[in-house]
Amino acid sequence: MKRIGLLTLGQSPRTDILPDMMMILGQEFEVLEAGALDDYTSRDVEGLPIREGEEILVTRMRDGREVKVTKSFIVPLIQKRISELEKEVEIILLLCTGRFPEFKSKALIVTPSEIVKGAVNAAIRRGRLGVVYPAKEQTAHAYREWGREGLEVHADAASPYGSEGEIAALAERLAEKNLDLILLNCMGFGYKAKLLIRERTGRPVIQANTLVARVLKEIAS
């Protein structure tokens, strides 16, 4: 049985993400999970300073609590976990759609941002793209990340770890935009969120974690 490392920015295990991904990966893989924040408590993380202008990332603690961290804080912790996981696996998937510097590793590091970007570029050349982030602070960079000539970008935000009501309200807002394609731009958004948004908007929805799982299976098989 082949081993794959899954590295979350928060704490492992990611019982919210893994079931959807394993439906695609199947039983031929053994998954080893690790979290950048496995050595931290929720209180530790909540006490971390976030300065104005710093890039924010959203993740989940083991108890289901959402936390926000800065990229500058989390990158060294990711590298530490990679150095540990690479002793056990040949492929490590980073469970975040954000962009990161190149990490040092003997293992192959799979970063979802490039996979998701490629899929979106292949699916829509012109029209109206909706991009859903897990935090409002991230929406300001939407056009820089996704925009190009002929493509309108409409950014919105909702917590992947919040209530169904929050996702339902998001879906209603998206339905008003007459979008051609919607991207759930966070590995934390699951199938329930995708289904609700697709039903309310009537538009195609890309769920990042299952998209990445399909590519990961191809790479690892």
Protein described:
This protein is an alpha/beta fold and 221 residues long. It is 37% helix and 24% strand. The protein contains eight helices and ten strands. Helix 1 (18-25) packs parallel to helix 8 (208-220). The protein is globular. The relative contact order is 0.16. The model has no long low-confidence stretch (mean pLDDT 95).
Keywords:
221 residues; alpha/beta; Rossmann fold; 2 domains; four-stranded parallel beta sheet; 8 helices; 10 strands; 24% strand
Largest sheet: 4 strands, parallel
How much helix is in the residues?
A: 25-40%
Mean pLDDT: 95
Strand numbers in spatial order across the main sheet:
2-1-5-6
What is the molecular shape?
globular
N-end to C-end Cα span: 11 Å
Q: Specify the structural class.
A: alpha/beta
Q: Work out the oligomeric state of the chains in this entry.
A: single chain
- What is the CATH third-level topology name of the largest domain? Rossmann fold
The helix/strand series, from N terminus to C terminus, equals EHEHEEHEEHEHEHEHEH
Q: What is the CATH architecture term of the largest domain?
A: 3-Layer(aba) Sandwich
Beta-strand segment tally: 10
What is the CATH level 1 assignment of the largest domain?
Alpha Beta
At a glance:
The chain has 221 residues and is α/β, with parallel strands linked by helices. It has eight helices and ten strands.
Q: Which helices and strands, and how do they pair?
A:
Elements: E1 2-8, H1 18-25, E2 29-35, H2 42-46, E3 56-60, E4 66-70, H3 71-85, E5 91-94, E6 108-110, H4 112-123, E7 127-133, H5 142-146, E8 151-157, H6 164-175, E9 181-184, H7 191-201, E10 205-207, H8 208-220
Helix pairs in contact: 1-8, 6-7
